[in-house]
């Protein structure tokens, strides 16, 4: 089986999909606030390079790692789902095979924990570290 990159389409398809993705993101009132003040041409270029590499195509990404790029942005699971949904819709609109789009969505799932920061989530102590609250003795 070829790289998912080739199943999705060619480099021009991915470039157009990334442009459509951020058009949809900026038009989505749930997502737009995260991108206020962001240099969008730079973000489009970084996202295109990142996705090409993540899909097994040419790896030209030289940006920050995904966890660092999203640290402190307090991105929710709902926002993550919405953004991936916009990308999937854009690719289907451009004629990518639905099965390939489903595989891409599953692959992007692997970055969820790096992107999403749920406020108030329990802090897990590292293995072997004493629990935050010592047991009553
Ligand atoms: C699998 C999902 C995602 C991937 C692979 C991804 C990937 C990226 C990449 C490659 C960058 C550029 C990093 C750099 O500066 O070098 C970036 C930046 C950014 N992403 Fe994401 N992203 C994802 C989901 C999201 C979501 C759900 C949101 C918000 C709803 C978001 C908001 C942002 C913002 C605001 C920036 C710019 C940060 C800055 O310039 O300070 N991302 N993302």
From TrEMBL:
Q: Name one Pfam family in it.
A: Bac_globin
Which CDD domains does the record match to this protein?
A: TrHb1_N
Keywords annotated in UniProt: Heme, Iron, Metal-binding, Transport
InterPro entries associated with the record: Globin-like_sf, Globin/Proto, Hemoglobin_trunc
Gene3D superfamilies for the chain? Globins
Query: What are the TM regions of this chain, as residue ranges?
Result: none
The protein's name is: Group 1 truncated hemoglobin
Query: Whose protein is this, by species?
Result: Paractinoplanes globisporus
